[in-house]
User: What shape does this take?
Amino acid sequence: MAIPKVEDLSIEILNNMRNNIEYSRQSMINEQRRILLLTKEEESKFQFTIGFAITRLCNLGMIKKIDRGRYIITDLGREQLRLDREELKKRLAEYNTNVKKNRTIAYKIFKNANRKFLKEEKENINRNISERNLCQNLANYLRDTMKEMRGKWILGRYRL
Assistant: This one.
């Protein structure tokens, strides 16, 4: 059987946690594994997908980590379960879109700062200036690049 999308798996995890029982990551995995009847080839992708689903639910505040590998549903998670399944899938998918946008912005910031750093600090790098000084200089370039980019349009429509 095919591995479900992260949004579908997230909803299944929330549904299983609905009754306020503390769940371990391993119990979530075992429960879904039993339902899906996975082959050995699908196992690693499944592990990644369920880990991503758990992380997404935590970041959205729908479940809360109470100990290493142990989670419980939050009031927000229970509230979200009252929504139409398609509406909840849409909200979960929006989170993924926002993460991708933020990664793109972070990449642009780092790329610009690193380009300036390598160009302007080439002599210091070649002279074997201490790593601590070089790291601080790179941090300064990152800070300055973020200041320069703040308020500018990035990707045509997003602001820092």
